[in-house]
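Discussion board: Methods & Data

I've been asked by a reviewer to show the raw model output for two of the constructs in my manuscript, not just the figures. I'm not sure how much to include, so I'm pasting the format here to get opinions. Each protein appears as its amino acid sequence followed by a line of discrete structure tokens. Is this the kind of thing reviewers expect to see in a supplement, or should I convert it first? Here is construct A:
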Amino acid sequence: GAADGYPPYNIEQIGDDALRITLAVAGFTMADLTITIEDNQLMIRGKQTDDAQRVYLHRGIAARQFQRSFVLAEGIEVRGAWLDNGLLHVDLVRPPVEARVRTVPIRGPEADGPG
């Protein structure tokens, strides 16, 4: 699990309404990683499988699995993700709130109104 702090990660602001989460996932391939959004949680999971064909004389790098979750604030959307040099980047964006302006007509006393 992620209780041991694995994998380490950064969260950086890359724009007024944009964030990037970067996880250090050395040794993981794209096939080992999944990213899902469950309700308001971004779930990043990694699972490496052992290669039964390998014969180790020393094994200091174990196949690992992890699960990291990040709570997404209301309106945050995942723009995309990519794996580069052992770093998994996930870009998040908060779309600008569209100003919803509606004009309400004002009627005079000659119009039929309530009461």
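Construct B, same format:
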Amino acid sequence: MADITDPENTIIMTLKDGDVIIQLLPDVAPAHTARMKELARAGAYDNVAFHRVIDGFMAQTGDVRYGKAGGDLSAAGTGDSDLPNIPAEFTTDLSFQRGVVGMARANDPDSANSQFFIMFAPGEFL
């Protein structure tokens, strides 16, 4: 297992092919970090499917309303949690490189809620 230097800000996703370790950055995105931790601790992310996977780009998950694996996934990717949306936190020069996690949002920059994506390749345009 990887070295986890900050357990308080680490999420471990257990997938069929192994663990994905997500190191959250509360100094960069405090509200987004707090939301992911809240949903993870409540078990909301348990058994949520990756509803959007683009080979060589990214994988998206976190639709805690419609994305539960084993259910009807026809609306997966359109849902959120029961919590209010999070205002954008675009105050960093960090770019989306391979392995970076970002909160998914609609056209409204303040629409992040529960969904997130994991980059497979650089995406500085995001």
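Answer (T.O., handling editor elsewhere):
This is acceptable in a supplement if you add a one-line summary per construct. For B, something like: The two ends are 30 Å apart (CA to CA).
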